[in-house]
Amino acid sequence: MKYWGKTALAAALAIAAGGPAIAGDIIWARDGDIDSLDPHRATSTLSRQVWYQIYDSLLEFDDSGAPVPNLAKSWEIAQDGTLVTFVLNEGITCHDGTPFNADDVIWTAERALGEDNPSLTKSSWGDIGEVEKIDDLTVAFHLATPFGAFVPFMADQFTSMLCDSNAAADDFGTGSAIGTGPWKFASWTKGAEVVLEKNPDYVNYGRPIDNPGPPLADRLIMRTMPEAQTRMAGLRTGELQVIVPPIQEVKSLQDDPGVEVYVAQGTGQNMFLQFAVNRPPFDDKRARQAVSHAIDKDLAIKVVYGDIVERQYCPISKGVFGNDPEFCKQYDQDYDPEKAKALLAELGYGPDKPMEVTLATWTGDSRERMLQMLQNQLKKVNIVANIEVMDIGTLNARDTQENNKAEGPGYMDLMGWTWFDPDLLYLLWHSPGAYQGFQTPELDKILEDMRTTVDPDARKEIVHAAFKILLEEAGQVPIYTPGWSWLYAVSADAPGFKIGPFNRALFNAIDH
Amino acid sequence: MSATKSIEAPNDEPATRPAPVLEVRDLCTEFRTKAGVGRAVDGVSFTLHEGEILAIVGESGSGKSVTSLSIMGLIPDPPGRIAGGSVTYGGRDLTRLDEKALQKLRGNEIAMIFQEPMTSLNPVLSIGRQMTEGIRQHTGMSEAEARKHAVEMMRRVSIPAPEKRLGEYPHQFSGGMLQRIMIAIAMSCSPRVLIADEPTTALDVTIQAQILELMRDLRATTGASIMLITHDMGVVAEMADRVVVMYAGRKVEEGRVEDIFARPRHPYTRGLLAALPVLGTAGEVGGTQLNEIPGVVPALTDLPNGCRFSDRCALSTDKCLAEDPPFADRVGAHSAACWHSDRLAPTMEATS
Amino acid sequence: MQNRLEKAIALAGAAHTPAAGVAPSGWAVLLRRMGRFWRSAMSNRGARVGMVLVTVLVLVAFFAPWIAPYPPDEMGAGMSLLTPEMAYPFGTDEFGRDIFSRVIWGARLTIQVGVIAVGISLTVGTLTGLVAGYAGGWTERILMRLVDVVFSFTETLIALAAVAVLGPSLSNAMIAVGIAAIPFYARVAYSVTLVERNRAYFDAAYVQGAGHLRLIFLHLLPNIIPPLIVVATLGVSSAVLAAAGLSFLGLGAQPPSPEWGAMLSAGRDYFNQAPWIMIYPGVAIMITVLAFNLLGDGIREALDPRQTV
Amino acid sequence: MASFLAQRLFAALLTILVTTVAVSMLIHLVPGDPVQIMYAQSQGTTPEQLEEVRARLGLDQPLMVQYIQYMGRVLQGDLGRTIRGDQPVLELLLARLPNTLILATSALVIACAIGLVCGFVAAYRRGTWLDTLLMTSAILGVSMPHFWLGLILLFYFAVHLQWLPVAGSGAANLVLPAVTLGVTNAAIIARLTRSSMIDVFDQEFIRTAYAKGLPRALVLYRHALRAGLVPIVTMIGLQFTYMMGGAIVVENVFGWNGVGRMAIQAIFQRDYPLIQGFILMFAVVVVLVSVLMDLLYAWLDPRIRNR
Amino acid sequence: MTAGTILSVRDLRKSFDVGGGLLRKSGTLQAVGGVSFDIGPGETLGLVGESGCGKSTVGKLIMKLHHPSDGAIFLRGVNIAGLSRRAMTPMWRKVQTIFQDPYSSLNPRMSAGAIVGEALTIHRIASGAEKTRRVAEIFEKVGLRADQMGRFPHEFSGGQRQRLSIARALIVEPELIVADEPVSALDVSIQASVINLLIRLQKEMGLSMLFISHDMSVVEHVSHRVAVMYLGRIVEIGSRRRIFGDPQHPYTRALLSAVPVADPAARRRERIVLKGDVPSPIDPPPGCHFQTRCPFAQDICRKVLPDLLPTGGGHKVACHVRMPDAVA
């Protein structure tokens, strides 16, 4: 009796909340939710993909991956690379109607670099001394040392420009987010959906898409749908316009005339193995090399991903400055189980005394399957790997923990990073390192040089020197690229989708 | 006790006997159990006459309760069913009536009360509801009229403050009160027959006395016939006009109450009477032994051949073991199912 | 009166087994009476079916290495995603692993889950309920209040909390499921103990001068065991279900463990192309759970024919 | 009745109190450093920041103080903030709770509708082929893992036949999860109803009702059902708790955006404030429902009502 | 209390807390409110009363199955009222009990022999073959066969079970037996044999017995002396002859006249039918507890609780309006 009433009410509410697809709405179904829309507080691709729709950076990447003007119409490097001055475009307005100017840039930079609550990627900004307002539309960044990656970083999503009106909100990133981008934040229901609305005042200065003005559609909705098959069904019934397709279904989708499958190229993503190097067995490079020799990376990739990912040879991804498969192959441990066994035998492991290790990764995509492949291959050289799959945050913590643990079984994990520049190597492997893992004084020195070297050719030499150490020592064993969130299946009745460089999803030109 | 009438004297003249109200003929009721089919009632016949109290007496497992439920058509099916015989009331065979017709009779012309007043009333319905629903069902009275009638009935069974108590629930009453209410419910449509199945067994002796008195009064004022089912020979002696004794699903003896107690014609009846300590008759402690009946009541699925009492009977002969004694009217209306009835009476005389 | 009838029949039907001598204890007798109890349980059709299934399951688990044509995690045993055929009766998964072999090996894990989880809850629960029911007073109040508190959380939540703390793994899931079910056993043990304690035979033993241990272990325990057998049998099915559920959510068994819940969870990505990956483990779970349910129901019925289901 | 309810309320409060103790201590049972696990982000957090977090969560205080502080916050409605996204836990939970309640309630309605009817019919027709059929289905239903049933239903009705939408949180989306959760629980209710009703049918007052000449329908409805309802209501209260537990799994299968799905995410993300909040809220809901059921029970059973 | 007294009960009281919960205590049920009596060697005291009068509680108090709230229980001169369980253990060799329900009083998981012989083990009286011998002996004594020792309770009939219960009580050779409604669950035909057995054994073994029953006829048959209880108190106590022949308390009279007599000729005797029910022991009426139902109640009865006073010849009655001109 009372239940019926309640249910009827519930049904009414539910109908109001959901319902069939509405023209003008682009619904993008993904396997996970954002963490936050604060670019200083979240790092996940799922979050970045969304806030990229809301905020612009000073610069943008063009289709070739080169930095081009965006919010800033020009930039100038002076004083041997220690002073970078940006001139902003006129007439840009924030979503709340206030004009976008130098104050917003300074507010953003100071927020990211300040002591209170610094950006998680603070170190990637470079050693910035001061951000100076020259006039309303001119901002100067004073660097302590020259920093080769500074300019391209200003095209990254981690340097998205936030409007200073965000300061008034106490729920910035979760309940409000004011930027200048093509879409305005409307609402976020954690676990369910993020709703963005078209910014009618948007002018496209740098985004690599053929639409100079505001987006064509009215709303962009990111919906969390963990079950891959339901995303598929939703796409096929027209309820959804864009989905993250399950890898297993890519083939069938490619054959479907009603669906277009986009595979991001030049994502900057790389998937690699790393080890807890501060204790046995992986404190010995032979153990690491043995692992690398033991795994048939090509086969594993083929079984798990087919041909939608490619083999990665270098510590940084294809499409990123310095990537050179031919160079890297020289130092790579090719598939050679016998050699692996021999190395292990040197260390005292064999059929009677298998090496027991933990093999971890984070949840999602088909990484768990990848681990099962690796596990299976390792078993053949008497390495018994126990798989652990966890949340990315947990994995990050775990890696650091494992590197600081003196006891316990060997530990390695399949990790992934996405970056637009080899400066990533500094972040990962310069002591203390993101995970306080592999590091050598020699490598430290090389990476420091890499940061301050601006000349491309010289910088490339240095990058390669770093590669050589990492690969020979098997401190980082590259496996494949890309690694996550790089597939988009788009309904044919929503044409106009595009993936920009470094996996930027662009919805500005979708007509639905 | 002394015998006041000679054995041979006819006890009753058919002409003086009141008209029969309910006639049970060759009633058979079966139950299916895991151990097999058991005949809880096997070929029982008797007649209930206008205005009389007929006691059906027997120990547990004798089939007396099943008999009463069979008459009411309340045998749960499955596992039970009436396998044969007839129950004639008002010219109709109740065993052949459909459910609708039975409903019209139950509680209206034939009413029943049960052993446990506490569990025989619905704990979640008010007394008023449980009293009026039957009245309304049979008389078509309005709720208000039915309540008035219910109050009247409660008054008749001496429930104080009946108007107030109508709204109360069974747990707020004592056992004796509830049995009064059960009787009030049963009598509320002025039935011609009241079947009382062990109505006082669950009650204390002083309450029992109240209830028995009430039933006697009701019989006197309404003229209803009462079929009293009990295991208590004392109650039988106090209440009954006539008695049917049952053992293992069979009627073993029938007769007027005085005759049964004075000159039982079945060894089982005699044994029961002798097993009972009678108030005010005891000598020195240990001076008199109570009569023992050896053995136990047989299982209905595993009955002895011949007479069902044969394995416990002191008088048992080969004939008893081989042949089931028929129920024969030997001496007028006092009769028994025993090959040796005639050997009994003198023995009884001798010991009493 | 039907009951009275049955009682009478049971009474009369009771006979034989005249073993002379004074039996030493309730335990020996319990064991001896198990046979009778067993036969009576097995007279129920459902229980027989359940028993056969359980036996098959146990045999399969025990002889898994001989029954399964391939090791459970052998990749490339066959081509990936093969439809069921003679060589791969349940087909193969994305790694070419033989689903049939994995399901067979999974039986071991399932038995393990059942034994360990039920072992935990049965032991702890029975002792808690028994002690609470026997001791009475404050011991009883505190123990049973605690049990009530835990009971009101439902198994799933407790299991989730335990896994949240301990981290996901099959053994943690087993422990979690075991702990979560304790109140159930404790309540049954408690209520049965109360009933038995209030039976006159307990008072009789008490006034014979029997000590605490004698009263608890010789008089009470053997009498509360039969209903607990029912609870434990049915408990196996809920433990198997709960553990599979946790594995399904990724909170239990980790890859490449052929645990059925985990297999099912992994298989759903392939439902369109290879439904068998998901179907067979699901069927296996269902049959196992069904088997223990049937068996438990049958035993219950043998104990209390009125509770026929 | 007042004393009955007072007693029940006392028990309810006690349950919640014990829960708060358990919940506040939960974090200490975590092997390793919970703060590090929780707050590790991509580029590491400095030890100072971790210390600050520790202080903020009060983890550097003695246990008793921690508990008192925790209770102080809880009583002000502050269940802390999530690690991921830094959102207030209570708000998040409350935003999603209705979804879970809707799911559990709809499932309960389905379960009751099917379960009560089937159980009643089976009890009434005890021993017949209909009883056997119903009870065989019921035992199959009880044995069905609901995540499996859910997936099969999902794939068949939503993915394969495309009869029902898969995206969103509309009424049509509620159908499959509610049915999944409802059907398996219907089997349980059917079994319990049957045995409860059989008990009632065997009661002597039913015989009395027939002996009064009441028609069968009236006896079944007024006498049997009313009396049988009392234990069944208690049982349904318990079922609701199971539904809440089951919802956790089913929400994950169907992507229904309730607290259960958030809880699982929180467990994967080791978002302890959220996990703690979830457990506490769950306990409160369960306790409230059971108090509600006690009320209903007391109202249905005059033995308690008039005490 | 005389030297030969086996059991002497003095002002025994027992109350129970009832209802209520954690928050409030709703009341006290005075089950036994000051009961005193003696039992001599070889004597049977019948304790009669209606349900709820406290007669079973008295039995349980004497067996120490309940702990008395107040008063003394002298068993062979030893006050057992305050004894701990441990201290009581040897006393249980002196006093034993027979229970009402032949079904629940025997542990279904133990063989008949084990049930009967348990006390021998507990009190370290006998073990092994000696134990078996003694169990066999007592089996024969109560009319069971020694070869039935290995059987289980469910294999015995109700009457046989009650014999087992008797055997269990007698194996420690007690001096006093508390028999709590030992035959009321049995069919009439079985009842007789158990009563006969009890009387025979009592004589043979020189037992004293407290025979608790609601059945006046049975009590009359087995008792030397009889005590009548009403609402937790003894209202009349005396020899069987006095109680049944010349009852002084109106309640005793009413009780006797209420018993149906298995003789149709006795129908026309005069009867006292009491009105109403027994009041609740949680809230007994003021003054004499019986005053609410007593046909002879006077003002004093409504105010003063009468003491149990001797009237001579060991007979005592608790009534203000003693009934000199008994109508009997």
Automatic annotation (TrEMBL), chain A:
One of its GO terms (molecular function) is peptide transmembrane transporter activity. Residues 1-23 form the signal peptide. Its main location: periplasm. The keyword Ribonucleoprotein does not apply. InterPro entries: Peptide/Ni-bd, SBP_5, SBP_5_dom. Pfam families: SBP_bac_5 (PF00496). One of its GO terms (biological process) is peptide transport. Residues 67-430 form the Solute-binding protein family domain. Keywords: Signal, Transport. It is found in: Periplasm. GO terms for cellular component: ATP-binding cassette (ABC) transporter complex; outer membrane-bounded periplasmic space. Belongs to the bacterial solute-binding protein 5 family. This is Peptide/nickel transport system substrate-binding protein. It comes from Actibacterium naphthalenivorans. The lineage of its organism: Bacteria, Pseudomonadati, Pseudomonadota, Alphaproteobacteria, Rhodobacterales.
From TrEMBL, chain B:
One of its GO terms (molecular function) is ATP hydrolysis activity. One of its GO terms (biological process) is transmembrane transport. It is found in: Cell inner membrane. It comes from the Bacteria. InterPro entries: AAA+_ATPase, ABC_Ni/Peptide_Import, ABC_transporter-like_ATP-bd, ABC_transporter-like_CS, Oligopep_ABC_C, P-loop_NTPase. GO terms for cellular component: plasma membrane. It is a peripheral membrane protein. Belongs to the ABC transporter superfamily. This is Oligopeptide/dipeptide ABC transporter ATP-binding protein. It comes from Actibacterium naphthalenivorans.
Automatic annotation (TrEMBL), chain D:
SUPFAM superfamilies: MetI-like (SSF161098). Residues 97-297 form the ABC transmembrane type-1 domain. It comes from the Bacteria. InterPro entries: BPD_transp_1_N (IPR045621), MetI-like (IPR000515), MetI-like_sf (IPR035906). Pfam families: BPD_transp_1, BPD_transp_1_N. Keywords: Cell membrane, Membrane, Transmembrane, Transmembrane helix, Transport. GO terms for cellular component: plasma membrane. It is a multi-pass membrane protein. CDD domains: TM_PBP2 (cd06261). Gene3D superfamilies: MetI-like. One of its GO terms (biological process) is transmembrane transport. Belongs to the binding-protein-dependent transport system permease family. This is ABC-type dipeptide/oligopeptide/nickel transport system permease component.
UniProtKB/TrEMBL annotation, chain E:
It is a peripheral membrane protein. Residues 7-256 form the ABC transporter domain. Keywords: ATP-binding, Nucleotide-binding, Transport. It is found in: Cell inner membrane. It holds the Pfam family oligo_HPY. One of its GO terms (molecular function) is ATP binding. One of its GO terms (biological process) is transmembrane transport. InterPro entries: AAA+_ATPase, ABC_transp_ATP-bind, ABC_transporter-like_ATP-bd, ABC_transporter-like_CS, Oligopep_ABC_C, P-loop_NTPase. GO terms for cellular component: plasma membrane. Signal peptide: none annotated. Belongs to the ABC transporter superfamily. PANTHER family: D,D-DIPEPTIDE TRANSPORT ATP-BINDING PROTEIN DDPF-RELATED (PTHR43776:SF7), TRANSPORT ATP-BINDING PROTEIN (PTHR43776). This is Oligopeptide/dipeptide ABC transporter ATP-binding protein. It comes from Actibacterium naphthalenivorans. The lineage of its organism: Bacteria, Pseudomonadati, Pseudomonadota, Alphaproteobacteria, Rhodobacterales.
